[in-house]
């Protein structure tokens, strides 16, 4: 069973507002309301690939209840930790005429010490069944930046591969927990390195450094540029064809789902990378975030070329 962790979920509501203007009222159609969070996107794609992921995270208040119900409707199972504060709402105003997107993100709810302990208990209960754990996204406030590091260490003690997709300080510290795989994009890797990474060689050099620190795999995603998978013994590059992009948001999450699915089904490394890219690309070709079509994945798998870098 693959376990996904979304510590900072949100209700995402997006409105289409042409000619969005500050200081003006706008009449709009009903917003598109979804249960948001990177780990939830990963879970959705895993389900479409035929897996039965189990979702963990914090949920609170009526927003939390709504997300729980929504996930049930989508057929996603989970064991969420109840918190006293309300799960946040994030609003997006999409102005197609001017190609702008304005977002309002509520601050994260506070997680108390007891709620944190309760989550860690639920987390460790999953170890009996978990074959792979994926932790994605930001941390709610009041949780220490080393929280992912601690989670990774606990998983490692049980020999369960831990995949971490986050950024900033939680990523920096998370690396010290020796996760099985991290998936930075170019911006996140640059932020980690603390300097501009101009060439592919620069990026690979940083990824190798991370591997030497004890991370087994660094999956560097490069958007339309494909991806590079770095481990101590091998470096693979995925060269991808150009595709008609509709909405690339959530492609990183879909890529993680493709990778996790492949690892869980014992595919060889080259095929894992191919599948990861195909899922990211298939998501980018859809309007809906965290949605892939199996027919499209099959087609894309044939068009992705994997080469080895010396
Ligand atoms: P997000 O944060 O939106 O989930 P990300 O920045 O983590 O995304 P990306 O590097 O943008 O991740 O995308 C992950 C993978 O999805 C890429 O490696 C690629 O395979 C595919 N992909 C994303 N955007 C495009 C695109 N414009 N064209 C082709 N493939 C894409």
Automatic annotation (TrEMBL):
EC number of the protein: 2.7.1.144
UniProt cross-references to InterPro entries, sorted A to Z: 1-PFruKinase, Carboh/pur_kinase_PfkB_CS, PfkB_dom, Ribokinase-like, Tagatose/fructose_Pkinase
Pfam families: PfkB (PF00294)
Stored SUPFAM superfamilies: Ribokinase-like
Recorded GO CC terms: cytosol
Domain Carbohydrate kinase PfkB residues, every copy: 11-290
GO molecular function annotation: 1-phosphofructokinase activity; ATP binding; tagatose-6-phosphate kinase activity
Family: Belongs to the carbohydrate kinase PfkB family. LacC subfamily.
Summary of the function given for this chain in its UniProt record: Catalyzes the ATP-dependent phosphorylation of fructose-l-phosphate to fructose-l,6-bisphosphate.
Stated name of the protein: Tagatose-6-phosphate kinase
Species for this entry: Lederbergia citri
